[in-house]
Design brief:
Number of helices of chain A: 16
Number of strands of chain B: 13
Oligomer: heterodimer
CATH class of the largest domain in chain A: Alpha Beta
Strand order of the largest sheet of chain A: 4-3-5-6-11-10
Shape of chain A: globular
Strand order of the largest sheet of chain B: 8-10-7-11-9-12-13
Low-confidence stretches of chain A: none
Order of helices and strands of chain A: HEHHEHHEHEHEHEHEHHEHEHEEHHH
Helix content of chain B: 25-40%
CATH superfamily of the largest domain in chain B: PurM-like C-terminal domain
Number of strands of chain A: 11
Structural class of chain B: alpha+beta
Shape of chain B: globular
Number of helices of chain B: 9
Strand content of chain A: 15-25%
Low-confidence stretches of chain B: none
Largest sheet of chain A: 6 strands, mixed
CATH architecture of the largest domain in chain A: 3-Layer(aba) Sandwich
Number of domains of chain B: 2
């Protein structure tokens, strides 16, 4: 496990925690953008270890969480059709749509399969020429190159029974939207290392300069995240606001040009709804017109479907750091991990589900067992 | 028409003998059924009780309490590195009996076969089942076979029931965990689930991950032999160690804290879990148990367990606390804490 053990080393991590605490003259508010980083922070309890020096707000970078209800409902509608094999990454299966989720569609007879790569879905289409195979192309810039590659290869190979339901979002417009909010509290960002491995960090430089916030390109292991936080705190204490790269083993300033080029050939920027947040201009990717034949929305005629989000769910306020999950009236009552109302309650790293478990623990901790 | 037809020479063609596949006729109760039993099952499962082929088998049981457990096995693929559905069906039920501290004395097996199943596969399943039963010293004394139409089952399903004699002086139970107990895990975790997933998805890792499917009875016997006061035994099957601990925390009304750094996770299993975004704590085992034992007897228990190959990597992974009842918490390597909850459903691979 080279390159993993080193970045999980408890001694290095403890040194970094001590350094952050020593450096911070006040509590700073940082946002980790990516769900993968939230996962590490929650799993390792890093936020708890940094109390007093740093408050971490879990950002909107969980693709499961921000995929709009509308796209989920389109997925459910397509997956329920006879003759369709609907493929998806595993964690989309439990995301609730308006009245059910993909697992329930499967139980009712829909053919829903978990795949680990869009290219697996393409291969499935080649093996099943009498079926329509659809891949749910969600995610940030990270998953865009593989999804672009699947569409590109489908065209090259002349596979006409393959299409993608696109729900791609991009990070920089989300950061800008958070910073533009009048009640924004975020003072610095940990940018998502894998997004930058594809895209580089040039597009973050004007954001850091305009809003005077440090942005640190950060990896996903505990030591990565603590180092990223340490760099952000140092900038804030110094009054600097630059883009810095913590994830040097994977990210260069220009990203990965061949991957960017492929994404640009297959996708174009478009307005995109974010679950709980609403529409953010030019924050998503859609297929270019020349790839319309691979667009599942058009192929299955679901493009016109629009739905509104449940009013009780305050996922948007949570994802932008405006409120903490327990401040939502539905939290723990109408909305639990068993019956999630919004996506942040679905995945274990979703902010709401993380708080839900923590709250259970804190409540129980204060209770002693009576023998 | 010629007048020289000899009616005596006219007869229906004799039915074809069994082919290489299971046919509906194998479940008819007729000659094919008898052949299936005589040629495929009996040679492997040879024992006096079964050889009677009566409506029920008679076994002798010492006077006292018996433990009974039943389980159905529907694993896909049927064969996987480290075993097949046959050995799994024996180990799974034997382990459930062993977790009550009981000594298993016999098993029964019910088979649901899908028309078209390869008889060669069936033979391998039966052979593995017989091997597991022989190694455990627990005979399969009764059985049943049904055949369903193609498409009505997934190859074959097996149900096994196990009967064991309870030792009145050795009565672990899920509600007996107490503050002051330590939590011992008997071996490396998450192997079975990852072996199945790798086989199912056709994933290639540097080395094949093998299932840990095994009878835990020898380990339970070791603990019984040294008279350790074992409060709880639980085999960490579906839902993994995390789910087993949660069930115990709730049943006993205690808090459990485990140490991330103490969990024995083999390197290849950890790598596979990392790739798929799975947590080894929730991945199924078929030859791993957790044992709750008073802290002052932990050393003796570990020492005993480690004398058996299956327990060579037995380790203390945590403790029972009076605080946070019914909650399992994990102390991370960095000193943070997180709650190890029960999963609402299957563990799903993550996007990122």
């Amino acid at each position: 496990m080279r390159y993993l053990a080193e970045y999980r080393d408890a001694d290095i991590a403890k040194t970094l925690i001590a350094r952050i605490k020593a450096r911070a003259t006040r509590q700073w508010t940082l946002m980790e953008v990516c769900g993968g980083q939230t996962h590490t922070i929650v799993r390792q309890g890093l936020d708890e270890l940094l109390v007093g020096a740093v408050e971490m707000i879990h950002g909107p970078g969980c693709p499961v969480c921000v995929t709009p209800l509308e796209q989920i409902d389109k997925a459910l509608a397509i997956a329920a059709r006879p003759g369709v094999i609907f493929t998806s990454f595993g964690d989309m299966l439990r995301v609730p749509g308006s009245d059910c989720d993909l697992q329930q569609v499967r139980a009712r007879g829909g053919d829903v399969k978990v795949v680990y790569s869009p290219l697996d879905a393409l291969a499935l289409a080649q093996r099943n020429p009498d079926k329509e195979v659809v891949f749910f192309a969600v995610g940030f810039e990270t998953t865009a190159p593989a999804n672009a590659m699947a569409v590109w290869r489908a065209r090259d190979l002349g596979v006409s029974n393959f299409s993608v339901l696109v729900s791609h979002v991009t990070v920089p417009p989300a950061i800008t939207a958070i910073l533009d909010a009048p009640d924004n509290r975020v003072q610095g960002f940990l940018a998502a290392g894998h997004v930058c491995a594809v895209m580089g960090w040039e597009e973050y430089e004007p954001i850091a300069a305009k809003y005077k916030v440090p942005i640190i390109v950060t990896g996903f292991e505990p030591v990565d995240i603590l180092e990223g936080i340490s760099m952000a705190v140092a900038q804030l204490e110094d009054g600097r606001h630059e883009v810095e790269n913590q994830y040097v083993r994977s990210v260069r300033r220009q990203g990965t040009p061949p991957a960017r080029a492929l994404v640009a050939k297959v996708f174009e920027l478009a307005n995109r709804q974010w679950r709980g947040i609403g529409e953010i201009p030019m924050s998503g990717l859609r297929l270019r017109p020349e790839f319309a034949a691979y667009d599942a929305e058009q192929k299955f005629g679901v493009a016109g479907l629009t739905v509104s989000e449940p009013a009780a769910c305050k996922a948007g306020d949570v994802l932008t750091g405006r409120i903490k999950p327990p401040q939502c009236l539905a939290f723990g009552t109408a909305c639990t991990p068993e019956r999630p109302l919004g996506a942040p309650m679905v995945s274990t790293e979703g902010a709401c589900s993380a708080y839900y478990n923590l709250a259970r623990y804190r409540t129980a901790e204060s209770t002693e067992v009576t023998p | 028409m010629s007048a020289s037809v000899n009616p005596a020479a006219m007869s229906c063609p004799a039915p074809l003998e069994a082919t290489d596949r299971v046919q509906l006729g194998h479940g008819s109760g007729g000659r094919l059924s008898a052949q299936l039993v005589a040629r495929h099952f009996l040679p492997h499962f040879e024992n006096p009780a079964l050889a009677q082929l009566a409506d029920a088998s008679i076994v002798s049981v010492a006077v006292g309490e018996v433990a009974i457990s039943t389980d159905s096995f529907v694993v896909q693929p049927i064969e996987f590195p480290g075993g097949n559905i046959g050995s799994l069906a024996v180990h799974g039920t034997l382990n459930d009996v062993a977790m009550m501290g009981a000594r298993a004395i016999c098993l029964t097996a019910g088979f649901v076969l899908e028309e078209g199943l390869s008889l060669a596969v069936l033979d391998r399943v039966i052979a593995e089942m017989a091997r597991a039963s022989r190694e455990a010293g627990v005979p399969i004394v009764a059985g049943d076979t049904k055949v369903v139409e193609r498409g009505k089952a997934d190859g074959l399903y097996i149900n096994t029931t196990g009967l064991g004699v309870v030792d009145p002086n050795f009565r672990p139970g899920p509600s007996r965990a107490r503050a002051g107990d330590v939590v011992i895990v008997s071996g490396p975790i998450a192997r079975h689930g990852m072996a199945i997933m790798a086989a199912r998805e056709g994933m290639q890792f540097e080395s094949a991950i093998t299932s840990d499917s095994a009878s835990l009875a020898p380990l339970v016997n070791l603990l019984r032999d040294i008279s350790v006061d074992v409060h709880v035994l639980r085999d960490a099957t579906r839902g993994g160690v995390a789910s087993a601990l949660n069930e115990i925390a709730v049943a006993s009304g205690v808090g459990i804290e485990i140490d991330e750094g103490a969990l024995p996770v083999p390197g290849d299993v950890r790598a596979a879990c990392e790739m798929l975004g799975l947590d080894p704590l929730y991945v199924a085992n078929e030859g791993v148990m957790v044992a709750f034992i008073p802290a002052d007897q932990a050393e003796a228990a570990l020492h005993a367990l480690r004398t058996h190959p299956l327990g060579a990597e037995a380790a203390v992974i945590g403790r029972v606390l009076a605080s946070h009842p019914r909650i399992v918490a994990l102390r991370t390597a960095l000193g943070g804490t997180r709650v190890i909850d029960v999963l609402p459903g299957d563990q799903l691979p993550r996007i990122c």
